[in-house]
Specification:
8-stranded mixed β-sheet; FAD/NAD(P)-binding domain; alpha+beta; D-Amino Acid Oxidase, Chain A, domain 2
């Protein structure tokens, strides 16, 4: 039986940042990360857009607003220190018609409240930054929005975890707790190993609700997966200078189809937010689990029937984006000189682990976590979770220490 002080379940960006934070605060204690895949970042952390958001989308009282702003700076510093690629291109948010102007004003207000650098522009000024952009009357420019290569970042974090002496177990995932009613916190791994931990931290992404349920948490919360796809352009590098986004619907957590400039200067459009039929529903029947699929389909059918948060319209809109022509038609509202023949290749799909509150039947919009003096569960680290990972992990560790101090535990 292996004994550790901190056991982190999940080797995504949040899990690795939490492991590094544990080792920084308690260098003499034993830290282990369990990752069921053969490398870290196999799911959302390595499949996201890589955009370092600025933080103006989120209400000032949200965790997302605070940690997006701080995370943007933290990742820039990290990438500079570790000599990782960063494209500091910036972002334009454009209005498609008069109805978008109040939303544009709200984003400007949030940027000011959140202390985020933002520039209001006329349509002519926006075209000076990006000659191809289309906007109605005015736009907003975010100079601090950037983009990195998430796979490169995850490789760097993995190397850092190993250098720090953290026990990284690849190909070994969480299976179940052993004798959960006993005093010891012991779990069984997918490789049959038994591990006793002083403290367990659940950062399992798509599986986070399942792990939390085993420890009595997240009783009214479940993961509802949404598949994200980007459509890549074969236009030459520099065909678009910066990211171009529409004004989003602030009542749902998706930002709509937009243009993303990659770290090497190429262009892609997307993403979709298509309801997935199982948690790791990437391609074909990969990761298929019939029990899981039945449960998710039942929940999606219930949302469709009740039409909670306008789910029916959202589902139809997203499913239609499987057609490349429709995806391009949405994107060409944002920029001119779009040739549909350039958009032929889908990128690798990702799945968003979106938390659903089963009692309110609403999607959780902000980060969610629950825990006590024995275990802690990160339940809704959705976009911009990648941007937020460094400061969010520090904040989470503050909460862990606070819960332990409350009953007199010190390390």
């Amino acid at each position: 039986m292996k004994q550790v002080d901190f056991l982190i379940v999940g080797g995504g960006v949040i899990g690795l940042c939490l492991a590094l934070e544990a080792k920084r605060r308690y260098p003499e204690q034993r830290v282990m990360v369990l990752e069921k895949e053969s490398f870290c970042g196999a799911h959302a952390s390595g499949r996201n857009s890589g955009v370092l958001h600025a933080g103006f989308y989120y209400a000032a009282d949200s965790l997302k607003a605070r940690f997006t702003r701080d995370g943007n700076r933290a990742w820039r510093d990290y990438c500079q220190e570790h000599q990782l690629s960063v494209n500091s291109c910036g972002k334009l948010v454009v209005a498609q018609d008069e109805q978008d102007l109040p939303g544009l004003d709200e984003l400007w207000r949030r940027a000011q409240v959140n202390g985020i650098e933002m520039q209001p522009l006329s349509a002519a000024e926006a075209r000076e930054l990006e000659p191809r952009v289309k906007t109605y009357q005015r736009a907003l420019f975010s100079p601090t929005t950037a983009v990195v290569d998430p796979k490169q970042v995850m490789r760097s974090l993995t190397d850092e975890v190993r250098r720090c002496g953290i026990d990284l177990r690849l190909g070994s995932g969480y299976r179940a707790p052993v004798a959960p009613g006993s005093g010891e916190l012991t779990i069984l791994t997918t490789t049959g190993e038994t591990i006793t931990a002083g403290y367990l931290i659940n950062a399992a992404g798509l599986q986070a609700d399942r792990v939390a349920h085993d420890f009595g948490f997240a009783k009214n919360l479940v993961i509802l997966p949404f598949k994200g796809l980007y459509l890549y352009s074969d236009e030459p590098v520099g065909s678009l200078r910066l990211h171009v986004y529409p004004v989003p619907n602030l009542n749902n957590p998706f930002l709509g189809v937009h243009y993303t400039v990659t770290v090497d200067g190429h262009v892609k459009i997307g993403p979709t937010a298509i309801p997935a039929f199982w948690r790791e529903h990437y391609t074909g029947l990969q990761g298929f689990n019939w029990r899981e699929s039945l449960d998710i389909l039942w929940r999606e059918a219930e949302l469709w029937w009740r039409n909670e948060f306008d789910f029916r319209r959202l589902a139809w809109q997203e499913l239609s984006k499987y057609r490349k022509g429709h995806m391009v038609s949405l994107a060409e509202r944002l920029v001119s000189q779009v040739d549909r023949r350039h958009y032929r290749r889908w990128g690798a799909p990702g799945v968003r682990a979106q938390l659903l509150n089963t009692s309110t039947r609403k999607l959780e919009m902000d980060f969610c976590y629950e825990g006590d003096h024995r275990s802690f569960h990160v339940l809704n680290a959705v976009s911009p979770g990648f941007t937020c990972a460094i400061p969010f992990s520090r904040f989470l560790f503050d909460q862990i220490e606070s819960s332990q101090r409350a009953i007199g535990i010190t390390r």
